[in-house]
Design a protein that fits this description.
Length: 149
């Protein structure tokens, strides 16, 4: 399962249409609205987590592009402090993408960054705070994303 987070900007003339529902119906893409500012006659802005097969997400993004919805991936990265981590495995039980798993019989926590969506759930459950999530250093991400135009 492929998971990514996107910032979507909707033209003001289509903010009243059920566009996101079509991602499920037409492209079998699950979604989680993390934050949204949608007002009549204003540009809509939404942070959306999309989950599904990679090809379906690409098709869904092309559908949005065809409606003049601008999408931008929110690149995140997860880092693990190997000196702090004592391999308790708490993070493996909450990871929705399987990026964190236990290697048996060693019981070592394995991290696969290709599967990681950057959701940050592992950060909250780590008892020694060995996991850290950060946005891509090449872009800044703040409340200014939600300024109404």
């Amino acid at each position: 399962m492929y998971t990514r987070i996107y910032i979507l900007r909707f033209p003001k003339d289509i903010v009243d249409q059920p566009i996101i529902c079509q991602l499920v119906k037409q492209f079998d893409v699950e979604f989680n609205i993390l934050k949204a500012t949608i007002l009549p006659q204003h540009e809509g802005v939404m942070i959306l987590e999309m989950r599904g097969h990679k090809d379906n997400i690409k098709k869904g993004l092309n559908y949005l592009k065809g409606l003049d919805v601008k999408s931008e991936s929110v690149a995140t990265s997860i880092h693990r402090d190997d000196e702090r981590c004592f391999q308790c495995g708490a993070c493996t039980g909450i990871c929705p993408t399987g990026a964190l798993s236990l290697k048996r019989p060693e019981m070592a926590v394995i991290f696969d960054p290709e599967k990681c969506s950057g959701c940050g759930l592992c950060v909250t459950v780590c008892p020694v705070k060995a996991m850290e999530v950060s946005l891509d250093k090449t872009r800044s991400f703040s409340e200014t994303v939600f300024e109404i135009h």
